[in-house]
Each structure stands twice: as structure tokens, then as C-alpha cells.
């Protein structure tokens, strides 16, 4: 209850948006268990489930972090995130309901335009997050332990870098290297067992936003250890990216 009340007081708009995303996460999960529509042999609603869940985590994380920025009005940032990420979830869910792909789908002019719009929306959301990262290097941050402040900075920086890594997938019009998308993979995440998968680095890098601050605040409690963790974490994300580009699976 303390977490929920604090989140709501820090940024009620992002708190509510995250809550809506959580409701859709549950809805998409239920649909993945009760419908038979598939894309690449996987239930079509798994993808919107993952995106809604990821957006829920992002929204609440950013609501928490922004609360540390004094004299910052988050209204514009909030609406940028709601519009851009809301559009992505809507289009991914719409395509799932039709049993069609959303990403890399340029089979018609309309679908090509909407895929391009997803890239534009993702770029805007990432740039907005990068701006928040810049603010955490300024003098408008509330008093925080130095190790915790650096964990937020590193989490934001790595998030931004590997959010833009999505353009690697966009340039190749695939997330699988060495085969067509849809090869057998691990449950839910569907990362390929046998080929390179660019989604792994994307996932690892973007969730630095939660993992590094949590480990720093609750476990490390030391600035040097936090910076070391950030370097190692970034190295892991880069390693999985290079490995995927070489067509090698993460699981061998």
C-alpha cells in the first residue's frame, strides 16, 4: 500500500496509465489462454501481453523516478508516454486480434505506414526518457544516496541505448538472425533456441531501468559497486547483441 500510495502521490497520471496497462496485461493473458488465434505458431495475444506488461513496469518506474526531480512539471512527459506507448499497445493488440503481425508488416501501404508510426512513437518515447536521464545529471534532483542516484542514471542510460537498438531490428526487418522469425523459443518471451535473436539484448538493456536501481538500493548500497554493476550489465547487453548479430543463440 505504501508503494501504491507513494506512486500515486508522485505522478498520478502515469500511475493511472500504468494501472490501465496492468488491466490490459491481465486481459491479454486471459485471451492467450482462451483463444486459438496464432502468429508464427504462438498465440497471438502473447505479444500484446508482453508489451502491456513492459509498459506497466516502465510507467510505474518512471513515475517513481520523476518524483525525485524537484521543480519539474511532468505533464508533457506523461502525455508523450501515454500517446506513444498507448498507440503501440493498441496497434499490436489490433493486429493480434486479426492473427497478423504488427512489427515488420509492410504487406499493404496502410500497414507499412502504421509500422513506421510505431517506430516514430518509440523514438519519441525514448527521446523523452533520455531527457529525464539528462535531468538526473543536473542539480534538480532531491537528496538521494549517491549509489542510488547513480543506479538511476545508469539504468536510464542503458535503457535509452537499448531502446534505440530496436532500429537494428527495424533495419533488418526481422528479430531473428539466421532464419525467419518464428523459430522455436523459450515460453512467453519466445527467444530463439537455435538462432540469433535481437530481442534478447533489447529486453536486457531496457530492463536495466528496474534491475540496476533495485540491486543497488536493496543489496549493493555502494557507489563503486553500483557503477561496476552498470558496466557489467551493459557488457552483458552488448554481448547478447553481438552474439545475435552473428546468428548465435544465447542458449548454447
Overview of this protein structure:
69% of the residues lie in helices and 3% in strands. The protein is mainly α and 252 residues long. The strands form 2 sheets. It has a two-stranded antiparallel ribbon. A hairpin with a 2-residue loop joins strand 1 (38-39) and strand 2. It starts with a helix and ends in a 7-residue tail after the last helix.
Q: What is the helix tally?
A: 10
Q: Helical proportion?
A: 55-70%
**Percent range for β-strand residues:** under 5%
What is the string of helix and strand elements?
HHEEHHHHHEEHHH
Low-confidence stretches: none
Largest sheet: 2 strands, antiparallel
Q: What average pLDDT do the residues reach?
A: 96
Quaternary organization? single chain
CA radius of gyration is 18 Å
Could you say which structural class the secondary elements and strand pairing correspond to? mainly alpha
Strand order of the largest sheet: 1-2
Compute the number of strand runs.
4
N-C termini distance? 42 Å
Query: Rough shape?
Result: globular
Amino acid at each position: 500500500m505504501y508503494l501504491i500510495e507513494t506512486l500515486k502521490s508522485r505522478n498520478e497520471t502515469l500511475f493511472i496509465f500504468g494501472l490501465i496497462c496492468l488491466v490490459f496485461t491481465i486481459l491479454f493473458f486471459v485471451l492467450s489462454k482462451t483463444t486459438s488465434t496464432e502468429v508464427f505458431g504462438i498465440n497471438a495475444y502473447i505479444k500484446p501481453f508482453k508489451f502491456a506488461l513492459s509498459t506497466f513496469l516502465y510507467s510505474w518506474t518512471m513515475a517513481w523516478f520523476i518524483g525525485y526531480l524537484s521543480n519539474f512539471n511532468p505533464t508533457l512527459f506523461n502525455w508523450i508516454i501515454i500517446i506513444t506507448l498507448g498507440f503501440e499497445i493498441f496497434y499490436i493488440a489490433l493486429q493480434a486480434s486479426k492473427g497478423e503481425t504488427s512489427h515488420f508488416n509492410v504487406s499493404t501501404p496502410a500497414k507499412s505506414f502504421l509500422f513506421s508510426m510505431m517506430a516514430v512513437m518509440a523514438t519519441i518515447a525514448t527521446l523523452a526518457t533520455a531527457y529525464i536521464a539528462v535531468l538526473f545529471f543536473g542539480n534538480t534532483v532531491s537528496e538521494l544516496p549517491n549509489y542510488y542516484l547513480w543506479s538511476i542514471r545508469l539504468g536510464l542510460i542503458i535503457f535509452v541505448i537499448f531502446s534505440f537498438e530496436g532500429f537494428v531490428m527495424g533495419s533488418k526487418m526481422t528479430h531473428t538472425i539466421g532464419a525467419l522469425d518464428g523459430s522455436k523459443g523459450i515460453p512467453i518471451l519466445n527467444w530463439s533456441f537455435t538462432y540469433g535473436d535481437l530481442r534478447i539484448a533489447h529486453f536486457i538493456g531496457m530492463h536495466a531501468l528496474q534491475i540496476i536501481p533495485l540491486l543497488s538500493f536493496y543489496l549493493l548500497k555502494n557507489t563503486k559497486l553500483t557503477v561496476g554493476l552498470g558496466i557489467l550489465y551493459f557488457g552483458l547487453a552488448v554481448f547478447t547483441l553481438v552474439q545475435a548479430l552473428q546468428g548465435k543463440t544465447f542458449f548454447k
